[in-house]
Amino acid sequence: MDLPTLLKPQGVKVVSDVTSKKRLMQTIADVAQNLVGLPASSIFDALQDRESLGPTGVGHGVALPHARLGDLTNVSGAFLKLDKPIDFELVDRQPVDLIFALFAPADSGVDHLKALALVSRTLRNPALCAKLRANSDPATLHTLITGGAASQAA
User: In this structure, what DSSP letter does residue 32 have?
Assistant: First the structure.
């Protein structure tokens, strides 16, 4: 599993109108419906259900919301960069502006965990996060995320 497989160019967005965690989840669902072919309402509900178990933020302004969806056949992702960071109820109290959402089949088991580990490892790199924050072009963001990380297969 590698990042170019998880994240397609059309799954990268720069968002300026998100002001709350709930609105962020709706925006993720709107982006994801075109990526995974499921209704945004189903994706939103799955994201909210997972988030109700505890925040999926990893700290330092990064969040990894994720959901298992019964009608998927493979793991896929979406990356959103927020122009204005929002509160994500994290332990470090830092607002979130880099979000990598993952969507996995309900029975994906270890593949889902490998994808989460790969994305988490990638976004723990402070230099990469600084580059992501310094750019607002979706194509550049996609290249930054997937460029050097393809060899870090989980």
Answer: H
Q: What is the DSSP letter of 124?
A: T
Residues 6+ apart with CB under 8 A from 144: 128, 131, 132, 135
CA–CA separation, 123 and 102 (whole Å): 13
Dump pLDDT digits (tens) for 56-72.
Answer: 888 899 999 999 998 88
Collapsed DSSP state (helix, strand, coil) of residue 143 = helix
Q: For residue 60, indicate whether it is catalytic.
A: no
Please tell me the chain's helix, strand, coil percentages from 3-state DSSP, rounded to the nearest 5: 45, 20, 35
Catalytic residue among 60, 66, 112, 142: 66
Please give the average per-residue pLDDT across 21-44, as a whole number: 95
* Pairing status of strand 62-63 against strand 96-105: parallel
